[in-house]
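Feature request, filed as a ticket because there's no other form

It would be nice if the structure record came with a short human-readable summary line next to the tokens. Right now we just get the raw output. Example of a typical job, pasted below so the devs can see what we mean:
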Amino acid sequence: EAVEALNNLQTNAAYIRQAPKHSAENTTLQDTHKFLV
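Raw output as currently delivered:
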């Protein structure tokens, strides 16, 4: 389960780097990342 959570964080981080800064979905992923870290 911990490995899956780590993989999800890595996937989210990769998406955040590629996503437009103004994207609402990007903001949500950033907020989720902050919460999980």
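Something like this underneath would help us a lot:
The chain has a mean pLDDT of 72.
The chain has one domain: 2-36.
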